[in-house]
Amino acid sequence: xxxxxxxxxxxxxxxxxxxxxxxxxxxxxxxxxxxxxxxxxxxxxxxxxxxxxxxxxxxxxxxxxxxxxxxxxxxxxxxxxxxxxxxxxxxxxxxxxxxxxxxxxxxxxxxxxx
Length: 114
Hints:
Layout: E1 3-7, E2 10-12, E3 18-25, E4 33-39, E5 46-52, E6 55-58, E7 66-71, E8 76-81, E9 90-97, E10 102-104, E11 108-112
Parallel strand pairs: 2-11
Antiparallel strand pairs: 1-3, 3-8, 4-5, 4-9, 5-6, 7-8, 9-10, 9-11
């Protein structure tokens, strides 16, 4: 069983920054990929950033603005979001993949508005 708990969401003005954090508890399961997804009202859930080993992948809409990182000592994966835009407003989910299953956190709301 893998448990994921997100934190760090909130309300920020356009151009501002937020840092999301996902605390992981894998209980012996090997996680080989972790990432962040988001879902805006009325839209499908979409990939924001993915990390597998040292390989990272970003949605075109966030390249150059968002950075995903993993702290193995703290068992966290984080998403640094800079130059935020109103279009970044969404519920952000942490995701982990093992060899047998996908796991999701409960989500943390990010709202970009003036």
